[in-house]
Design a protein that fits this description.
The complex is a heterodimer of chains A (about 220) and B (about 220).
Chain A: H1 6-15, H2 30-35, H3 40-63, H4 73-95, H5 97-103, H6 114-122, H7 129-159, E1 161-162, E2 165-166, H8 181-206, H9 211-218
Antiparallel strand pairs in A: 1-2
Helix pairs in contact in A: 1-7, 3-4, 3-7, 4-5, 4-6, 7-8
Chain B: H1 5-50, E1 56-62, E2 67-69, E3 83-88, E4 94-104, E5 109-117, E6 122-130, H2 140-143, H3 145-148, E7 154-155, E8 161-163, E9 172-174, H4 180-197
Parallel strand pairs in B: 8-9
Antiparallel strand pairs in B: 1-2, 1-3, 3-4, 4-5, 5-6, 6-7
Classes of the chains: A mainly alpha (about 220), B alpha+beta (about 220).
Chain lengths: ~220, ~220
């Protein structure tokens, strides 16, 4: 793999934000995206923890990509990812005990987030640490953005608040359903619809399907 | 010579496991005291809340035959399940017992802590520590202040009873409209806590802990 120019590192970073957004376009990592996004803060914490694990694992795995034998690569990835998840879990418990209590078991479950393992296998194991970190950072931020959007929308409708700040006063009757599990599915459905129609509108404008070009690098 | 492939595979995984272990142990050693402190502080705050007037906490552990002050760690942080907490006022006088109890709620186990004053034979405070009741309905057992205040002077004899509304007797609790099951669960948890613990309490009033009262930093 030849060294790439800074522009392409930037491209790797940006693609995760919108064009290949992990949640809204790739539809990966649905378990945490649905389970803990009943408030914007929870979404932010979950996204942040995932971002941390993602960047650290990408860095480790791309640095070691020539040392790790092919046959045991998945097991090694899992060990690396699990280590950083455990670290993130302990850090959250020590410094933000309330958020840790809210997120509960879902922090440990970051280990099996297919988004992270997927990026290691599809990207970090084939690229330089620099690219891998850019990719992990982009995907992580894209994931966090998605979770905050999802959590924020559910919190506004379900609690009449955003980041815990009440928006509408007492007159607002909260849609309780939005902070319950069904609300997660509903809101995700609406947001997927929104992103898909934006994408479609873009393609119609360009007159050519844009989806294939962006996937080549990752595949 | 070439290293056999199986050796390099096993070696890689062993090394990965070893390094991973080192990292985790390192972070654990760093965060563990902070986590313990957080938990102890959270518990102390709950105890102070359910026992108005208390300013020091001491854990007492049920050994199977008698209740004794837990040795060591300044009060909070005793093992769960067999420990209750004695609360003492500023002057070292005994205020009451804070008793943790748990039971089935509407969706999941409700864990709560309640304060019991053996002199008045009353529940003097209640705080839900952990629950997954329905947001907006069942979770009013935590947020509904008029419900929570029902537990500020509640007679426990013959037992705590849940009534629809307008309960006047000292042992009656008004149910939250729309959250009868969660309200009933709280009452049941307290009754079950009383069943277990009241017979275990010592006859005499506990003396102030010998250690200096544990301070809670703001």
């Amino acid at each position: 793999m030849s060294a790439k120019t800074p522009e392409s590192a930037y491209a790797e970073l940006v693609k995760g934000l919108w064009e290949e957004n992990p949640v809204f376009i790739q539809v990966l990592g649905m378990c945490p995206a649905l389970a803990v996004t009943n408030t914007a803060v929870n979404g932010l914490a979950m996204g942040g923890a995932t971002l941390f694990v993602m960047v650290m694992s990408s860095l480790m795995i791309s640095s070691l990509r020539k040392v790790i034998p092919r046959q045991v690569r998945i097991s090694t990835y899992i060990v690396v990812i699990a280590t950083f998840v455990t670290v993130a879990d302990m850090l959250l418990e020590a410094f933000t005990p309330l958020i840790h209590k809210e997120l509960g078991a879902f922090i440990s479950l970051i280990v099996v987030n297919c988004l992270i393992l997927g990026r290691q296998e599809a990207f970090a194991s084939k690229n330089t640490p620099r690219m891998a970190v850019a990719d992990g950072l982009g995907m992580g931020i894209g994931f966090t953005f998605a979770l905050v959007l999802l959590g924020g929308a559910r919190e506004v409708l379900g609690k009449g608040a955003l980041f815990g700040v009440s928006l509408f006063g007492d007159a607002f009757e909260p849609w309780i359903i939005m902070i319950l599990p069904p609300g997660g599915f509903l809101m995700l459905g609406f947001l997927l619809l929104l992103f898909a129609s934006v994408k479609e509108a873009k393609e119609n404008l360009n007159g050519s399907p844009a989806a294939d070009t962006s996937d080549e690098r990752a595949a | 010579m070439k290293i056999p492939q199986s050796v390099s595979l096993v070696g890689t995984l062993t090394l990965a496991g070893l390094l991973s272990g080192l990292v985790i142990v390192g972070v654990h050693r760093w965060t563990e005291p902070i986590i313990r402190e957080n938990k102890a502080r959270a518990l102390q705050e709950s105890v102070f809340e359910v026992l108005p007037g208390s300013e020091a906490v001491e854990a007492w552990v049920w050994s199977g035959e008698e209740l004794d002050p837990a040795a060591g760690d300044g009060g909070a942080g005793g093992s769960e399940g067999d420990a209750i907490y004695a609360g003492f006022g500023a002057g070292g006088e005994f205020v009451g017992w804070a008793i943790p109890a748990a039971g089935a709620g509407y969706q999941d186990t409700i864990r709560l802590l309640y304060g019991y004053d053996p002199q008045r034979r009353q529940v003097v405070g209640m705080r839900v520590l952990e629950s997954r009741e329905t947001p907006g309905l069942g979770d009013r057992i935590i947020k509904d202040l008029s419900f929570v205040s029902e537990f500020e002077a509640l007679a426990i004899e013959p037992r705590v009873v849940l009534v629809k509304e307008g309960g006047d007797a000292p042992n009656e609790v008004d149910a939250i409209t729309g959250a009868t099951i969660s309200s009933q669960a709280v009452v049941d948890v307290i009754n079950s806590g009383n069943e277990v613990w009241l017979q275990r309490l010592p006859e005499t009033t506990p003396a102030a802990p010998s250690q200096p009262p544990t301070e809670v930093s703001p």
